[in-house]
Fold this sequence. Notes:
Elements: H1 3-12, H2 19-38, H3 47-59, H4 62-72, E1 77-81, H5 89-95, E2 100-105, H6 108-121, E3 126-130, H7 133-136, E4 146-152, H8 157-164, E5 168-178, H9 182-188, H10 190-195, E6 198-206, E7 215-222, H11 236-239
Helix pairs in contact: 1-2, 2-6, 3-5
Amino acid sequence: xxxxxxxxxxxxxxxxxxxxxxxxxxxxxxxxxxxxxxxxxxxxxxxxxxxxxxxxxxxxxxxxxxxxxxxxxxxxxxxxxxxxxxxxxxxxxxxxxxxxxxxxxxxxxxxxxxxxxxxxxxxxxxxxxxxxxxxxxxxxxxxxxxxxxxxxxxxxxxxxxxxxxxxxxxxxxxxxxxxxxxxxxxxxxxxxxxxxxxxxxxxxxxxxxxxxxxxxxxxxxxxxxxxxxxxxxxxxxxxxxxx
Length: 243
Ligand code: SAM
């Protein structure tokens, strides 16, 4: 993966990157591959998969976030729930440096890795924290504090809605990065979304250059405060998803 290949591929999905940004992604790639030798951070370890399925896939959310930013005209606070090795939050921060980003994961090692990357790349206004979505959703410093709440590959939609919506401020947006079944997933979660103060806004198909995978972004607007009992604690969102 060269700087030019990264810039070309990102350009093809409408995300122009300068050579410093492409260089940051390459350094991130090196850290990811190196950390994967120490512990299992991601199943994808070859350049082509990291570029397409981690970097570009993460960057498919840039267009929507830019539109939200243009509409609000302010710096956005974004939280990436279940960030793992930093996806999509780290590529988004590299592409959109003005974002204020929180990367959250329940696993200490993953959070430690994200903090290593933040330090190594010299990124500002970004932090990685160890927390569970169900707990963070009740903490005043996180509940209804974020303009954009995003997640990729964390849970089925009804569970994910209960993780994400409590963290979004009224007027904010949740983005669930999903696969080919996104429309059906969104429909199945309609009741849960409404109960949590959300309204389904759109399911936007996105594609990756040269890949067959069908992907989509489920966009949910936060229209009312989330009722106090949510998110339920103790694994309930996963064990008995809202209907
Ligand atoms: N988002 C990353 C990506 O797309 O590569 C990681 C996906 S990984 C399959 C799911 C991640 O979500 C894991 O790192 C896991 O620790 C985290 N996770 C699962 N449930 C969580 C919860 N309730 N709160 C916070 N993190 C959670």
